[in-house]
Amino acid sequence: MKGLKPNTMQTILKRTFVGLLSTVLIMSLPVHRLRAQGKLSIDKVYSVYLRNGGTIIEKGQIKGYFFLYESDKVDKHTSEYTLQLLDENLNKVKAIKFQDSKQLTLLESAYNGTTVAFLFKNDDDKTLDMKIYDFDGRLKYSYSNGFDKRTDDLMKRYMVLHSDEGMNKNVFDVGDQGYVSVLPLREGSARTYEVDYYSSTTKKQWNYTPEDAEKYAFAEYLGSTDSLIILEVLKRNHALGGDISSHLVGINFVTRKKQFDIENANDAYRFVPCNVAPLEGSNNLLVIGSFYDKNANVGKDYSKGLAMYEITTGGKVVNRTYNTWIEDFGKYLTTNSRGKIDQVGYLYIHRVIRTPDHKLFIVGEGYKRQASATGIAMSVLTMSDAGVTKVVVTDMVIMEFDDKFRVKNATIFDKTNNTALSGPASDYNSQHLLALYLKASGAFDYEFTTGDESNSNFAVCYSDYEHSAEYHGQTFNAIRYNGSKLTTDKIELKSKASKMRVLPAKGGSVMILEYFKKDKRLDCRLEKLG
User: What is d(CA 185, CA 178) in angstroms, rounded to the nearest whole number?
Assistant: First the structure.
């Protein structure tokens, strides 16, 4: 079985500084200065969302880049678009041009190693169009689905999040087989979901919708294997209330059927999955999430700790390990019985990393409620429920586990608290539902994790904003593991560009992508680190 393809594999951006700036890849020693190596400028770039580009990777090595932009305005109804392909030295390899309606909006992109896929919204035809290109510039396959009132929630989400701060919310690769989208649907009072599969090897498309019993369900993509799409599905009995049940669902994209649905009804605790990783040396999967008392309400109550379930691809649970906040994590972090870490809050799990010596590292990020002075004042002045708290994203936490999945260490890495949510929603939503909202809205500072193929060395990358006498502005940070210990690096970023993105590059370098809106110019340059 091929390794899992977690949704964090897509490079994402989230924070704003002057224009929009995003991710950076640290691949060498501590860095405080950049030195230019080469540069490429592209003119007549009328509009571009830098998040709809990325790296072309082969066997863990950077082989080039891709990005799509509006390159000309043909007439009042038509625009020209260009998909630009570059090699690792920023030489132009291919420029794929096509004309389409001005009402064409690029929503998301994904890359699976051999092709690149773009999801467009076509307001003229009222369709969602998936176009898959190979890296010779050929359009391999084009798929269309109509959008209507059922997908209204999805359209609203894209309208709000269509910016360079967003990340892939609905479209993901499933290895070299193709792509999958997980779309929220609304029909009357019901809220459910649809899974759409697009092959990149043959002309094949299909969709999966849950059974009628799942009228009130929310699905989140967790990852895939070479045959499975793995989802966390939250269900409830009716639209306005009822206890929430959490399910780990595996959909086989070869048979097009649900392969398993794990609810843990017979377990000692209630389990809410949030991350899935392959277990090296076996075909089994490691599922990580929070666990609750048997009679707890997931929508209201607090978790007891982190649980690790080892499951087969058929959905059979073969091992369960529980680490409680107060007893197990309390040896390394100051925690209370509600799972809240002193100064950090609750943890959301971003990434699971297994090293060759069978250590397991889990990357978490804190979030917590704080009193909102503005919300309290508004509530008093207007005598309304304006929301008296806010939710802030706090520090990074790296947790280490042994080969039996027992916690053996945890380290907090300080960063600036950022307000992520305010208003009534921050007052009433549960610990788990708040985390899902923060992830969906791109509010966390975590960017991605990178390293060598064996994970003997890796870097956990995140953005931050520094307020100090020496520097005031955006920073990129990396927590690096060299096989024996964790160290930190930081780089200060400043740019006059309207938008900026920093991507991984060939050994010891980064690629900086900047868009100057006034000049309609896109600049790319390689910079040597160190």
Answer: 22
Residue 193 has pLDDT above 60, yes or no: yes
138: exposed, middle or buried (Cβ count in 10 Å: 0-12, 13-18, 19+): exposed
**Concatenated DSSP letters for 99-143?**
EEETTEEEEEEEE-SSEEEEEEEETTTTEEEEEEEETTS-EEEEE
Alpha helices, DSSP H, located in 429-490 = 431-440
Task: Quote the pTM value.
Answer: 0.77
pLDDT digits (tens, 9 = 90+) for 489-500: 887 777 788 888
| d(C-alpha 206, C-alpha 86), whole Å | 32
Measured at the alpha carbon of residue 119, what is the angle toward residues 59 and 235, in degrees to the nearest 5? 95
Query: CB neighbours (10 Å) of residue 48?
Result: 25
Burial of 420 (0-12, 13-18, 19+ CB in 10 A): buried
Q: What would the pLDDT profile of 325-376 be if each residue is shown by its tens digit? A: 999 999 999 988 777 888 888 889 999 998 988 899 999 999 988 764 443 3
What is the b/e burial string over 441-479, where b = at least 16 CB atoms within 10 angstroms of the residue's CB?
bbbbbbbbbbbeeebeebbbbbbbbeeeeeeeebbbbbb
